[in-house]
Amino acid sequence: MPTDPPLGTPTDTYRDHPVRSYVLTGGRAHPTRNTLRPETLLCAVDDGRELPVAAGRHERALLETCRGTLSLAELAAYLRLPTSLVAVLASDLVDAGYLAIRSHAARDTPGLDLLEEVLDGLHRF
Amino acid sequence: MSTTTSAGSRATARVPALVCAVAAVLAVAAVPVLDDRLPAAGWAPSAAAAVLVVAATVLLSRSARRAEAGRRELLAERDRLAADLAAGGRALQEATAELARTRESRDDQRVAVETAVVALARKVQASAHRIQEEAARVVQRHAADPDVLQTSMRIDHAAAQHARQAQNLVALCGRRPGQTWDDPLPFPDVVRAAAGRITAFRRVEVSGDPGLAVLGRAVEPVVHVVAELLANATQCSPPNTQVLVAIRQVQRGAVVEIDDCGVGMAPRELERVRAVASGARPVGITDLGEVPHTGLAVVGSYARALDLRVDLMESVYGGLRAVVMVPGELTTAAAAAPAALAPSVDAGWEEPAGGGARASSDADGTPGGSRDAAAGPSPDAAPALPQRRARRGAAGPAATGAQRTVPPAHDTTEPAQGRTPDQTAEEAGAWIGAFFSAGHDSTPSAVTEPNSEDT
What we know:
heterodimer, A: 3-stranded antiparallel β-sheet, 6 helices, elongated, B: 5-stranded mixed β-sheet, DUF742 (chain A), DUF742 domain-containing protein (chain A)
C-alpha cells in the first residue's frame, strides 16, 4: 500500500486534469453491475459496431485499450484512472454491449485430464 | 458697464471744450474786422475773446480732470479684476492638483486592494486544488471502493466550485488565472471541464466534436468562460431542463453555443448584459454592486484579454443563447489519442526515464498547481498512454519508435510495485486472451456474450 505524503507537501505523483471524474460518470460512483471486481476480465466486443457519435474520448480510449483481454485493474492502470471509476465506465459499456465480461472460471477451466498431466509432469520435475 | 461709463464721460467732457473752442475762434476772427470799423472800441472784442478763452480753458481743464479721474477709476477696476482672475486661476490650479492627487491615491488604493484580493483568492484557490488532490489520493488508496469514490467525487465537486469562485475574484481584478495547463484540450472536454465547476453539471448536454482543441495557454480562461456561461444558463432555467451545448468549427476558429430553456430576458436588460459579457463595458471588482453579478463580468474580462467574441441572444428554445467564438489562433487540431483522461495519482510504479514531460509547476507556484504535460501528439515525448495507432501485430515493442511506458497491474491483483513496466495493454490483453483460449478448439467462443456476468 503506497504511503501518502503528509498534508501540505507538494507532490509529483498527482496528475491533475481539467475534466473531473464525476463529470465522466454523471456523478455516479457505483457501477450498474455489482459483479465487476478488479480481477474481472474484460474484452472489447469486436462486432464492427462503432461507438455512438456522442460517446466521449474516455469511452473510446477504454475500448481501444481493451482490445485484448484485460482485467479491470489492469485496464485502470493503463488508463491511469482509479479502478472504481473505470468500473463505472466499463459497466456502462458492458450494458451497451461494447464490452464483454469474460467469465474465465466457468468455461475456460482446463479438463481434468490436462490437470492430471500437468500434475504428473510437476511430480517428475 | 465700464465701457459705457467712460464713453459718456468722454462725451460730456468734449461738449464744453468744443463750445469754448468755437467761441475762441470766433473771437479771434472777429478782432481784426472790429478793429478796422471801431478803432475806439477796439478793446471790447479783444476782452470778450480773452474772457471766452479763459472760460474755455477753465471748462476744458475741469472736464479733463473729470475724464482723468474716470480713467483712473477704470484702471483700478481693471487691476482689481485682473487680480481676482489670477486668484481664481490659482484656486483652480490648486483644485486640479488636489483632484489629481486624490485620483492618484484612489488608484493606488484600488491597486493595493486588488493586489490583496488576488493574493487571498489565489491562496483559496490553491487550497481548493489541494483538497481535490487529497480526494484523488484517497480514491487511489481505496481504489476498488465505490463509496469512497462517491465521497471523493462530492468533495472534488465542491472544491471545484470553490476554486471557480476564487478565480472569479482574480479575473475581476484583471489578472490571469492561477491555474495553467500545458496540453491542448479538445473542445468537448473543455465543456466537460467547465461543467465540472458548476453545481448542476448533470444538466449539461454536449454535442458536436469538430476535432479541434484549445491551446494549453488558453485552456483555463476558455474553460472558465464556458463555466460561467453554463452557471448562468443552469441558474436561469428550470431545474428539470437540459442546458444544450453545441460545438462547431467555423472559418475563424470554433464556436461554443450554450442554449438554456428558461424564459429569456427583457430587451433592455439583454442589451446591458450583452455589453458586459462581450467585454464592451468593462466591469472591475470595484464596479460590482451589492448584488454582484460576477459571472458575466468575468466572461467580459476574459473576452477582452483573449479576443474571444462573446454574445448573448434569444434562444430558439425560449431562453438565452450564449455564443463564444474562440479564434483560430487559440485552437489546434485535437490529438487522436488522449494524453490523460482525468485526474489521477501515480502510485505504485516509477516514472520511466524520460517518460513524458512532466510539468514542473505553474506560474505562481501554487501548491496543487503541478500540472501534467504528459505526452500529447508530439512524437518525441513518450506517451503516457500506449499510443494505439499501429494495428495489432504490426509492430512489436522494439519496432515502434515510441517508448513503452506501461504501468504494471494494479496492486490488488499483483504486488508489482516498482517493477519496470514492459508490456502494452495490447500485448497483455493478447497474452491473457491466448492463455484462456489455449486448449479450446473453438476460439471465438472464448468471448462470452456481452451480458453474461461472472459470479
